[in-house]
Each structure stands twice: as structure tokens, then as C-alpha cells.
Amino acid sequence: SLWLSRREEEALPWYERAAALAPGDPYSRLAEVMVTLWKKGMTDALALAARLALDAPHLYEVHEMLGTIRTMQMEWRRTTRNPAYDPAAAVEDFRRASDLKPRDPNLWNFRGIALLQTGRYEEADAAFVRAIEIRPSFGSAWHNRTTILGAEGKLEEAAELARKCIEAAPGEDFGYVDLANSRIRQGRAAEAEKVLRGLLERLPESSKGWNLLGAVCSKDGRYEEARAALDRAVALDPDDPYVRQDRGAVHRMAGRTAEALEDFRAAYGMGYSEARYWVACCLDELGRTREAVDELEGYLKEAPPDKTADVRGLIEQLKRKLGEEGR
Questions:
Q1: Looking at the DSSP assignment, which residues form a beta bridge with residue 82?
Q2: Least crowded by CB within 10 Å, which of 90, 162, 227, 231?
Q3: Averaged pLDDT, 136-159
Q4: What's the pTM?
């Protein structure tokens, strides 16, 4: 519970105690996996979890743990401690877990997410439908079905499904945010803003709602309104790197480069690799071009393959700029 609430440091001593209570017991070994994840990183944790899966294949929690760690790899920077994410392996992990505990909607939802990441949309949708059949008010599964429609460009169908989500799970923000996103992609920003303001009247603690409202306001140059909304989002969820990234983008658009730099650095420190690119852009804009080159050369080691050409191009551009300034 502490871990899922992002209170990892508080969770760690409980995992350590559980790991020490009954060495060899599968649940103590599960706790050992979490301790290893925290102290040594994903590579070692995955190896421990894989051995446990061989020794205790009848426990759904073991396969769920493996799949969860693999899924977390999307959020963690790729380093020697974090191998490349393998969504196909996560599909198999959650398939085994949901086969062992077929009435658990969370496992079907996780299974669908992994399938979605492999591009197997029909199978993913079937898994999300199964999760909703078990728990009709499961907002996350509704949201994931909407994500598929959005990826396929079926924006009006996505909007209709988002409305159904609002009816099924009115106490969650998924449906409102999905409906607003559909309207934004359709070029109907005013409708999106109306949806979001309705959400925030009902659920004022929705960081996703405030974050998206900030994006809507920034699109037509209302930077102070955008900043106020994003400040609220950061206050509600200070550990979300995407919120800090989005606020940094608004600061930069408004010409507040130093504040943008602070937010991009925070987002990078929370594990969002791409923020390092924007750190470099801000440093250059502040006249600190040499530091910008250093940041970009560091980012080049982490950047996904589809971005490396752009990063190299910017490095060369900034190096030419430094050469011209030196003459």
C-alpha cells in the first residue's frame, strides 16, 4: 500500500522485515524482490523474480510482480540497472497471473496494457472489457479502451466511450480527461475546457484535470491561467514528472526560461529522460551553451533511437555556435 502510494522510503523497511521473517518462503522472497528493486535496480530484481516464478509458478502474485516490474521499465531511464522494456514478456507474465486468478479485474487490466504496448489492440480491448465485466466502475479499464480508439483515430467513438466512463465511474477523473483529450484532438478546445472545468468543480483534487486545463489555456496564449492550473497540479502531485515537464513547457513559452529550467531538471530527476533535452535548450537560451552541449551529450546515451539524429544535429549546431563565439 505504501509503495503504490509512492511512499517508497516508508515501504522499504516493511519489505526488509518481511524478507527477513521467513527466508525461502515465497512471500518473503517477493519482499526481497522489492528490496532489491529499490537498492540495486531492475536487472537484479527481475532476475530474482524470474527465479521465484520457476520455484512458485502456482502463485499469481509472482507473475504479477514480474509483469509490474517490466511495466515500470517504461517510466525508468534506461541504464545498466534498467534493461530495455520487453512488453511481450509482460504480456506472458500477466496472462499467467490472470489465468491463476481470473476474477481479478486488475490483472486483466494489466494484461490489456501489456497487449496494447505490443500493438495487439483487439486482444487488449478484450482484456479491458473483461476487467469492466468484473468491475463495471473500473475507470482505468474504461480509460484504456478509450486509448485504443484514440490511437486508431476514432475520436468521436473515443468521446462516446469517455461519456460511458463518466457514467460508470463518476468519482474518478478518467472519463472527463479522456473526453477533453478527444475534443482537443478534434480542434474543439473550448468544449475541452468546459469539460475540464466541470471535472474540477466535481473533483478539485484531480491533478490530471488541472494539468490538462493548463495545456488548454497555454494553446491560446493564456499563460498566467495555464501557470495557475499547473501550479495546482504540481501541488497535488509533486512527484509526477509529466506535470513538472508540462509546467516547464508553459514557463518556456511565456519566456520564463529560468523557471522552465528548474521544472525540466525536476522532471529529469524523477526519471523522465526527454526532459534532459529541454534542460539543454533552456541552458542555451540562458547563454550557457557549453553546459547545454554537455547535457545533450549525456542525453544521447539515454535517448530513444528515433530521437538520436535530432540530438546529434543540435549538438553540432551548438558546437558551431560556440566556435563562432570564440572567434
A1: 79
A2: 231
A3: 96
A4: 0.84
